[in-house]
Amino acid sequence: MDDDEGRLIVGLIDTSQFQRLRRIRQLGLGHFAYQGAEHSRFTHSLGAYHLSTRILAKLGNDYQISLEDRTAVRVAALLHDIGHGAFSHVVESILGFHHEDFTIAAVLSDATGVGQLLRKYSDELPGRVADIIRGNFRPMALAQLVSSQLDVDRMDYLLRDSLMTGVKYGVYDLEWIIRSIEINTTDDHLFVSAPGIYAVEDYLQARYYMFRQVYFHRTLRAAEMMLHSLFRRAFKLYSEGGDVWFAKGTVFEKLLGGDPPTLEQHLATDDSDFLFHIKQWQGSTDKILADLANRFLNRRLLRAFDLDMPDEARPRFIAAVREAAERAGLDPEHYVLEDTAGNVAHNFYIRDDANPKNQIYVEDGYARPQIREISEVSAAVRGLQLGYRIHRLCFPTELQDEVLKLYHA
């Protein structure tokens, strides 16, 4: 890295857009389940940048990588999350946007500090960084370092989330992976040399178990479901002219009305803005909104119950729980919620022949090595292709005894 690039990186970190990431928790509502999970998107982004620098240094020993490409990859790794909304992915799903769209817009904008610094450094740099995040940058192998199934984003968050939650599921041999990453210059993609295949198996298994045990944790998911329910109620009240407080003239007025925020408004919003409004909603004359806000803030979360029963029995059981909620004076539309999640490529590694960028390739054999997609070589990875799904019912804890009776009836 030359001095000019070093000054660019420091300048990008000092922008308001990047500093905002200090106020967005990396694991969203993960602290409801894991008390130590208070880390931010800021520290994760620095970690992704650090890993990109290390891997580029390794690859640079054996492959020709231009200074311009190295800079673009490192900057993209640093900035890949600046478009995230409050509570990371949770509010993203509530409001229906994708953080990468805001990241790309921030990078390309002449109005953001990030965009201005990139353009000052090089007229081409904003577009190159945006292309890496979109996934259409060439060489593709370098773009894969930032966005693929084996990228610096996942490499960092697995180890960081594992450390901060206190679990061991996300631990894998990072050093072996870095040592083993190579570039297939003929087909333009990354691959892992034969000695590193076990480290990649370890990495994919770590990812699998982190989703099963941490990212799909009952308490975390119950908190997310409650936040969804809380905002559905707020949206409904706003549309009907009900008692839902908001700071007039701010982004919240647009959000409650279903209007997308501007780039400037989005990049000025973080976890604290949402928490502030939820605190105000505790005083609403609408009993449902006030109660949900109070429960959320004081961690009186819904109970998440696995629907461990034949598929045909689930509708009848769910209907019975909804009736029990009504008898208790609780609106089932807001207090009895189904939670489903499962096999998508973002969660688990799934072979995708139509999209080479999102496949992991490894070197098979030593005497006459071939480069093959990892599930062709590894029985362990083939087993992970089965994935994992959850189907839970969330309801207030005061209904727990009645729900258990219904389940065992």
End-to-end distance = 67 Å
CATH architecture classification of the largest domain:
Orthogonal Bundle
The CATH superfamily of the largest domain is Hypothetical protein af1432
Classification by helices and strands: mainly alpha
Number of strands: 7
Q: Overall 3D geometry?
A: globular
Helical content class: 40-55%
CATH class of the largest domain: Mainly Alpha
Q: What's the arrangement of strands in the largest beta sheet?
A: 3-7-4
Q: Total domains, how many?
A: 3
Please name the CATH topology of the largest domain.
Hypothetical protein af1432
Q: What oligomeric assembly is this protein in?
A: single chain
- Poorly predicted regions: none
Element-level helix/strand string: HHHHHHHHHHHEEHHHHHHEHHEEEHHEH
Concise summary:
This protein has 409 residues and is mainly alpha-helical. The protein has 22 helices and 7 strands.
